[in-house]
Structures are given as structure tokens and as C-alpha cells.
Amino acid sequence: MSTPSSNTAENLDSGQIIAESPSYWSSVRSNLRNDPVTVTFALILLMLLLSAIFADFIAPLDPYKTSMIKRLKPVGTEGFLLGTDELGRDMLTRLIYGGRLSLLMGITPVVAALFFGGLLGLTAGFIGGKVNMSIMRVMDVFYAFPSVLLAIAISGALGAGIFNAIISLTIVFIPPIARVTESVTTQIRALDYVEAARASGANSLTIIRVHIISNVAGPVFVYSTSLISVSIILSSGLSFLGLGTEPPQPEWGLMLNTLRQSIYVNPYVAALPGVMIFLTSLSFNMMSDGLRSAMDIKL
Amino acid sequence: MIAYIVRRVLYVIPIALGVSVIIFGLVHIAPGDPLNAVVPPDAPKETVELLIKAYGFDKPLPVQYLIWLGKALEGDFGISYATGRTVSDAIAGGVVNTLILAVGGILIGTIMGCSIGALAGYFQGSWIDKLATGFAIAGVSVPHYWLGLVLVIIFSVELSVLPAMGMGPGGSTSWVWDVEHFKHLILPVITLSVIPIGIITRSVRATIAEILTMEFIQTLEAKGLKKGRVFIHVAMNAAPTVLAVSGLQIGYLLGGSILVETVFSWPGTGFLLNDAIFRRDIPLLQGVILVLAMFFVVLNLLVDIAQSLIDPRMNRS
User: Fold this and answer.
1) How many domains would you assign to chain B?
2) Is B150 inside any structural domain?
3) In a domain, A254, yes or no
4) Buried b vs exposed e over A232-257: b needs ≥16 C-beta within 10 Å?
5) Residues of A in contact with B124 (CB under 8 A)
6) How far apart are CA B205 and CA B215, in angstroms?
7) Using a CB-CB distance cutoff of 8 angstroms, which residues of chain A are in contact with residue B18?
């Protein structure tokens, strides 16, 4: 470890070089700073996440408290800023609480698929040959299903429930993540510096850990953030069909489903949960696009 | 060229077999006895045993799979548990209705996607480009089942100009070329076209932008070719990409229409699938998924072959 004083000296020294040729990450940071749209959507996502986590403190009322006389109040009713649903529960409260399950069901499958798909893709790409063939051909079979159909088929067979919905979406997202990881790994494995590391005696695990993962992680991560957008729409879609969460739990897709019957009574309240799904999915897509161009990733 | 096509066609066989294994396996990951849907819990033992034999559940799994596959190849998906009708009859009606939606969706999607994408690609960085890109991202981010609901709210509830559900007057389940059926088609088709519009716009924009930087465009312009003629060359070069993207989108629409069909009570495969799931009607579930997945496999094949015919460079990969 260097002492603070020498540290500053070093910084001053290298400062001029950095100014001339900025490192990769500092250029990514400055790209993002010059991209207000991406920053705005990242902030929206942060707000959605925080409001879901701290729902207990933010939400004005109890998300489960029903009221027979206050059913389907319009937006702007006193005490119910965004109106009430078909059982007289406060919409604002339920939309805030709904973020918990919707975000959980949307993000978890992609994270799980990132782990399993990433592992499969790394193995296939790094070992190559027959192993690559067999892993990627199995992935091809899953690719033969349109994603919505596969998700609904697996959830439909497993039955309704949050856990089953997460499992089925994880299976849906493993093949695309494995494919991207495999193609990036194969490209990097062929690069000279990996050959150099091998020649200097590094073993496979070290090469994967030090050289491959650090280069594969960026593109795969950015790709995965765009999948979260799809995952949010699909998981809410499963709940909308009655295959995800079950009543009375607050979840945007399910709320949209139960409020569907009320579109003739109070159409604007009925459409609100969809606005949340749209906003969340749009924010993930915008952030993913912004990161992709800031990190200069081509997939 | 022919070698490529033959190889590509042969590759369908293992994929199709894999797909059939997954679909057959779905029943066996399902909790509970598949017979529960047909047999009341207090049925006498002899009846249950008779049914187990009749449905072939007493044989080992691989044998059950081969029997199921053999029958499926002949177009026999068994008898629906819930209705007692043959599954193939139910699917035949549903597939046509879903195809009507999917083809309508892809037509609008391709026309809109190509026009918006081409404009954005030609005027890169302009406000047209920014608007188009924003529109495309919104298109791929919108939960289409919600969009369907919003369209119903606007055009059926508020303006009452278009019907909110069904395929035609009086719960019609087969297509007729008349004004009433056409009116029922408008909202679901628009809903379904939004995702392809977004995806096609994005890829057409990227493709056109890339083609415009190529040297042959400069050559054509230097030769003094009129702008319109140059555009024809650009369009020809963009065609394989457009074809591939739109072609595959039909497949995604076939699978993705289940949510839209639910919103509009459209009597297609999505509606059947929904029914099959909630009545735990396993033969119907397997049949619908198998038919839709095979459509997708064949579509992939056709797109690849068409692409290799248009653009011989594709054969190398």
C-alpha cells in the first residue's frame, strides 16, 4: 500500500496521461454523463425500486383493506389520490406495493438465467468442440419456441404461483443468455493475449477468471438488462393470465386482470397498473440502450 | 446452394424431435395425476384402471412417448379431456383464427416498421430519427395486453365505434369477409402489430444506416444516379434483413397472441391454450403447443432458405 502523499503524487503524475487517453471506464462514465435521457430513466428505476422496498413507509393506506362503499372511485377522489379498485382498496397504495412482486418476478428470472446461462455459455465457448456442440444444440431446441409460448407452456404445466412463474421465465431466458455468452467467449478465447497467458503457464481456471470473465461480463450484463424489460412484461403477463401471483396479493399484472371487468365503470383506474408495467419495462430498455452505447458494445 | 438447403432441412429433424420431447415432458412435470381432470375422486377402482389402460398410462414413459409421437405425426393429438372432442378439430379452427391475427399484425408491422425505419435511417440524428427511435423503444417496451385494454377503453368504451371482444357478431368463431368481422379485427391486429413495428423499425434503421456508409452507394451517386434509383439499391440490400426479421416475427406473434386473444376473447389458439391450462386438459395443451412450435420451426427454416436464395453470401455460415 502506498502512503496518501505518494498516492496523490502518483495521481498528479498519471493525471496528464489520463487526460490524453482516458481509460475505458472513465470514458464510459463521461459518455453516461452526457446522456441525460439514460440518467433520467436510471433515476426513475431507482425510484421504483426504492418505493417498492420502502412501501411500508411510503404507501398511504393498507393494501389489503377493502371497503364495499368505496369501490371504483375515480382518480383524484379525496383520500384516494389514484382512486380505488373493484374491492375498494386504495390504488396508489396497491401500485406502490405491487412493485415488490412485479419487480421481484421480473428481475429474479434474469438473474438466475444469467448465472445458469452464463455458466453454460462460458463452458461451451471456452471448451469448444463437442461440448460446445452438445450444449448449444440443446439451447437451439429451446429457441424453437417463441418465448411467450414457452413461458406459458411451462407455467401452465407447473400450475399457478410466484415460484413456478419465476422457474418458467428462468428457463426461457437461459438459452439467449447462453448464446450471447458463448459467442463473446469464443471470440475472446481466440485473441492473442489469451494465447499469451496460456503460453506463460496460466491454467484454464485462471484464464477464465482473469481474462475471459472480465471481458465477457460487460456485454452479457448489458444484454441481460434488456431482457429484464421483456421479463417484466412476461411475468406480469403470466399473472394477467392467472398463472403468476394469486389474489389478493398486489401485483401489477394481476391487478390489471381483476380490474379488466371494471373498464366500463372506471376505465382510467383500470388502466393504471399497465402504466407501471410500461414505465418499468421502458426504463430498463432505455437504460440498457444507454449503457450499450456508453460502453460501446456491439452484440 | 442446394447442399446448404438440404443440410438446413435435415437440421429440422433433431430440433423437432427435441421440441416434441420437451412438450411430452411438460405433462410429467405437471403436479398431480393427469387423470384427475377426467376422473371424479370417488370413481370406482375398476373405472380408474380402465381409464389408465385406455390413455396408456400403464406403459413405461419412453413407450408412451413413442406412441404419442407416432399418433401426433398422423395429426392425432388424442381426445380433449374437457370437451371429449378430438384435439385436432379444436386446433384446426383455432390456428386459422390465430393466423388471421398474426398475418394482419405482421402486415401492419412490416409496412409501418419499414417506412419508419427507412426514414430514421436516412435522416440519422434528425428529429425524425429521434422520434422514430423513441417510438420503436416504446413499441418493444409496451405490455401489449395492456395496450389492447387501452384501445378498448378508447374505441369501445369512450367512443363506442369498435367492438371490444369476439371475432364477429353473435360469438362467431369462423372468419367471414364482411364489415362486421373486419371491425372486430381492427383492435386486436393493431395491438399485435406494435411489437413488430418496434423491432422492425430498429433493425431497418440500423441496416439502412449501415448500407448508406458502404462504398457502392458513393459509386452509384458518383455515376449520377437519381436519388430514387439509389434508394432501390439500398432497399434491395436491406431486403434479406427485413425478410428475416419480419418472418420470425410471425412466429413470435403466433406464440404471443395468447395474451391479446385473452383480452379480446378472440377464438384462436391462445384462447384454447388458456382453456387447456385452467381445465388441466393435457392433450389439448400438448397439441396446441406442438402445433405452434412446429409452425415456428418451419418458419425459421423457410426464412433461412429464402434468405440464402436472395443473398448467396449467407451460405457460408
Assistant:
1) 1
2) yes
3) yes
4) bbbbbbbbbbbbbbeeebbbbbbbbb
5) none
6) 18
7) 137-138, 140-141, 144
